[in-house]
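## retry 2 of 3
previous attempt timed out at serialization; input unchanged, resubmitting
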Amino acid sequence: MNSETLQLGKEVGVPQRPEDAVLDPVPNPHPDVNYVARYVAPEFTSLCPVTGQPDFAHLVIDYVPDQFLVESKSLKLFLTSFRNHGAFHEGCTIDIAKRIVETIKPRWLRIGGYWYPRGGIPIDVFWQTGVLPEGTWVPDQGVPPYRGRG
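## retry succeeded, writing output
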């Protein structure tokens, strides 16, 4: 990792596509401890690959870091790059998780993609890598099932 390549503290534009986005790893200050870091993106957006209409999700990303953390500005830019990206809910959710895993190689990662209804059906997508390290506490993601106005 080279601090000169980090986006933090620099003026950078929003990547036009997720493939163009850079996720910056930063050193974990406590690699000797199993702990959970959580990122929440309650206003994630992408596009329906069929209609081009916007899709909205509440993402919750939990991970147990090893040697690196994901630098939050780079994560925000990466997530924002999906705004003009056409993909199904399942594709966006899993692509985000796999990219984080590829970049920082956490001990464990879980993502919950809580998508708002499309065609009257909310779609929730969940994925995790392996088993949570023994003795690590991870809270519930805290996102209730979609209930509409009922």
